[in-house]
Amino acid sequence: SQKxxxxxxxxxxxxxxxxxxxxxxxNYSPAYxxxxxxxxxxxxxxLLLIRENEKEKRKERLKVTFDTTLKQSLFHITASQPxxxxxxxxxxxxxxxxxxxxxxxxxVKP
Amino acid sequence: DxxxxxxxxYLVTQMGxxxxxxxxxxxxxxxxxxxxxxxxxxxxxxFSYNNKELIINKTVPNRFSPKSPDKAHLNLHINxxxxxxxxxxxxxxxxxxxxxxxxxxxxxxxxxxxVL
Lengths: 110, 116
Hints:
A: globular, B: Immunoglobulin-like, 11 strands
């Protein structure tokens, strides 16, 4: 069966550290993978998109990797801040529509 | 300035009623979507729609129907509401169709539906 798994339901880290979130998928072959941020009571907000032929993508303190052999994406937030606390969702862009993981709730403690 | 807007923000209704949620986007996007986010926060696509094609997630009951009066609007109509329909419903839009690449989703603020 097809699955998207974000390995940690919750992740707590100290301010200034690097947060690493994992997204694994099975029985999908996405050409694109995206990451979103969702704050409580709000809709998800797009952060980054990475293509299957890209190994890594960066945007400010954010970095995403995409390994189509391992069927895995890693999402890193460097120099984390309390304002980074939110739920982060990975999403596979396939022809029948986006498929989201269940999300990882990140808490950055001061 | 709102990119994707939805109304109402909250909807409380009795089982068996019919209700609609409205969605509008001012981004000039070609594709719009409806998602359901359940109590476990799992975001699931219900419909993907552009002026050429409606893609329906086969798990969506036929009590749910999207209605698009024009490219900027995609409303969600729900017949015979059931307790299990209680969730947050998000509208979204993107420049391209699913799988086409330029598919960053712009989400509305959500409509929290409670069926009593």
